[in-house]
Design brief:
7 helices
């Protein structure tokens, strides 16, 4: 069996990026898969580190050329995807991949990898807490937050398709639970 990849999926604002950062500290044999997106950079984001920022024409050309392991129009006119060459780059380094993706991207990656990946859904403690987290980020308009909350409700219903569900109420506890899930699976496979 090839190395086991970890797919972390969650609604926007549930804490998946923070959790992935902590998992990378704990698992030095894993590497973060940088996703591609057509959305604009936020704050101090760096191309090739946080995302590969592509214009829509370039993104769609790569999609048509089947360069993505998964891709999705997450919000109207805003595309995200996982480039196959990014996965290959990490595997060539002899590392396992940790993905930080939306729920549909996670489901697509699970289909792409099959038994070579495990998926963890990061569940917010409640919709109210999720909304408060999105507001506290101060990166989205009220309209965008409402759109994200509506999408989150649908994504939470999809959590049943993940291998594990971890509630991110207290960050340290959620990170610990994710570590335990990954160690359990990797021990089982050894």
């Amino acid at each position: 069996m090839k190395s086991l990849h970890i797919i972390i999926g969650a609604p926007s604002g549930a804490g998946k990026t923070t959790i992935v950062g902590e998992l990378l500290k704990h698992f030095p044999d894993h590497c973060f898969s940088v996703s591609a997106t057509t959305r604009a950079k936020r704050g101090e984001e760096v191309d090739g580190v946080n995302y590969y920022f592509l214009d829509k024409k370039t993104f769609l050309k790569k999609k048509d050329n089947k360069e993505f392991a998964e891709w999705e129009e997450v919000y109207a006119g805003c595309f995200y995807g996982t480039l196959k060459k990014e996965i290959e780059r990490i595997e060539e380094e002899g590392k396992k991949v940790i993905f930080d993706v939306d729920v549909n991207g996670a489901e697509s990656l699970k289909d792409f990898f099959g038994k070579e990946a495990t998926s963890i859904f990061i569940m917010p403690p409640s919709i109210k807490v999720l909304e408060e987290r999105l507001k506290s980020r101060k990166t989205d308009s009220s309209k965008k937050i409402k759109e994200r909350i509506a999408k989150a409700r649908a994504e939470i219903r999809s959590s049943r398709f993940f291998d594990f569900v971890v509630v991110n109420d207290i960050l340290e506890d959620a990170v610990k639970e994710c570590i335990e899930c990954i160690e359990c699976i990797e021990t089982f496979l050894d």
